[in-house]
Design goal:
Structural class: alpha/beta
CATH superfamily of the largest domain: Methylthiotransferase, N-terminal domain
Strand order of the largest sheet: 2-1-3-4-5-6
Mean pLDDT: 96
Oligomer: single chain
Distance between the termini: 41 Å
Helix content: 25-40%
CATH architecture of the largest domain: 3-Layer(aba) Sandwich
Number of strands: 19
Strand content: 15-25%
Number of domains: 4
Shape: globular
Bound molecules: S-adenosyl-L-homocysteine, iron/sulfur cluster, FE3-S4 cluster
Length: about 425
């Protein structure tokens, strides 16, 4: 029996799809296959913005015919969208052919849900509000060698006013540090070369006291694991940024000199309405501290334009912040109202045409910065961890510790190797180069 998983959303979801694959293997599905050949198709959904939802709606809807024609095909839909208030019912009504709807706390139960579905005609729905345990006992089927994701915590307590994550992922729950460490050690022994510690807000690790140590301490311990590997972590919240974190990053060569520190907006009024709990000045002070201690550290960020009531002048403050902060790249989003969040109730929605204009200007500025920084790499040699082969380009690719993509040709398989790449050309965030064979 074969499976196919379609994933939307963040790294958290990508890793959870690896866990879903692990559960499916236990349930007797032996291999991954293209959609048309699969005996079970699982959608792991995201609801962070409206377009993420529309995407999933479109793809699930497109399966109606296949489901009718292929006897025994199971369709399961899980992930954050199913966890939204009332959404499971909407999905069931819109797509009666869905066999199983399961929430974000039900990954380990998927096997029993499949069994339940085999015994009944009705759609099986299982969505829990919360989950206290942090160990799921699942052995994930990892698909991103030489990179591996490790959850250090689940959920989020921050309630940024635009964000749906705290509603669909529940409150913060930290894994015990010893469980995290054991997993990291195991992965390094297995030959994984890059470990990314995952949490919605890793700096508040242990807010529930369950971890047993602070995030900087955990990072220190993980970076002390023997072996040649890189360590990354995502995501940091500026309100919990600390000197201790910078000190640990400085102490270990294994920790990538890259910080993803979402700022969202440049205006203090908007930051306050977003409930981000820091100011533009505090954010810039944090970057100054980071760069004083680790001068070549690269910073990336997330930015939202057109939060309700954002004026042209306030948007201009986001542009000026991008200039001042010297980001090496940024993810840019148009604000998307999410039912149930505070911001969705606010007046002063920004007109779509204005939003389009703002995001276009922001992207142009971000790209200009990225290009400038990439061009400065030409002639330099960087160490990249080769992670894939691009069939179209006929080139291997990997990232340097700053997160920049480097492409090169090679006669032999280089995946999993650290490669010294002499950069000859740059295009956006991508670098092209040659390596000694
Ligand atoms: N926990 C992480 C990631 C959250 S989701 C963090 O706090 O940084 C990733 C990004 O999506 C956010 O940083 C934010 O920029 C964006 N985002 C979240 N909700 C959004 C919404 N309703 N509209 C537009 N962008 C949103
Ligand atoms: Fe959402 Fe804010 Fe939590 Fe990030 S920190 S997941 S943006 S509520
Ligand atoms: Fe991630 Fe989307 Fe859920 S960004 S946590 S998959 S809402």
């Amino acid at each position: 029996m074969k499976y196919h998983i379609v994933t939307y959303g963040c790294q958290m979801n990508l890793h959870e799809s690896e866990k879903i694959a692990g559960v499916l293997k236990e349930a007797g599905y032996t291999e991954e296959a293209p959609l048309e050949e699969a005996d079970i198709i699982v959608f792991n959904t995201c609801c962070i913005r409206e377009n993420a939802e529309n995407h999933a709606f479109g793809n699930i809807g497109a399966l109606k015919k296949l489901k009718r024609e292929k006897k025994g095909l199971l369709i399961a839909v899980g992930g954050c969208m199913v966890q939204e208030a009332g959404k499971a019912a909407v999905l069931k009504q819109k797509f009666p052919f869905i066999d199983i709807l399961f929430g974000t706390h039900e990954l380990a139960d998927l096997r029993s849900l499949i069994e339940r579905k085999r015994a009944q005609r009705k759609t099986v729905i299982s969505v829990r509000e919360a989950r206290a345990e942090t160990e799921d006992g699942i052995t994930p089927v990892r698909t991103s060698y030489p990179n591996a994701w490790v959850n250090i915590m689940y959920g989020c307590n921050n309630f940024c006013s635009y964000c749906i994550v705290p509603y669909v992922r529940g409150r913060e729950r930290s894994r015990r540090a010893e469980d995290v460490l054991r997993e990291v050690e195991g992965l390094v022994k297995e030959g994984y070369r890059e470990i990314t510690l995952l949490g919605q807000n890793v700096n508040s690790y242990n807010s529930d006291g369950k971890g047993g140590m602070s995030f900087p301490e955990l990072l220190d311990r993980c970076a002390s694991v023997e072996g040649k590997f890189r360590l990354r972590f995502m995501t940091s919240h500026p309100k919990d940024f600390s000197e201790e974190l910078v000190a640990v990053m400085k102490k270990h060569k294994k920790i990538c000199k890259h910080l993803h520190l979402p700022v969202q907006a440049g205006s203090n009024r908007i930051l306050s309405l977003m409930n981000r709990r820091y100011t533009r000045e505090k954010y810039l002070d944090e970057l100054a501290l980071l760069r004083r201690e680790i001068p070549d550290c690269e910073v990336t960020t997330d930015l939202i334009v057109s939060f309700p009531t954002e004026t042209e002048e306030e948007f201009g403050e986001t542009l000026s912040l991008v200039r001042e902060a010297d980001f090496s790249s940024a993810f840019t989003f148009i604000y998307s109202p999410r039912t149930g969040t505070k911001a969705a109730e606010m007046e002063g929605r920004i007109d779509a045409a204005v939003s389009k204009d703002r995001i276009t200007r922001l992207i142009a500025l971000v790209n200009e910065k990225t290009r400038e920084k990439s061009a400065a790499y030409i002639g330099k040699t960087i160490e990249i961890l080769c992670e894939d082969y691009d069939e179209k380009k006929g080139m291997y690719l990997g990232r340097d510790e700053y997160g920049r993509m480097g492409y090169f040709r090679s006669e032999r398989d280089r995946i999993g190797e650290f490669v010294d790449l002499t950069v000859t050309d740059a295009n956006g965030i991508s670098l092209y180069g040659v390596c000694a064979d």
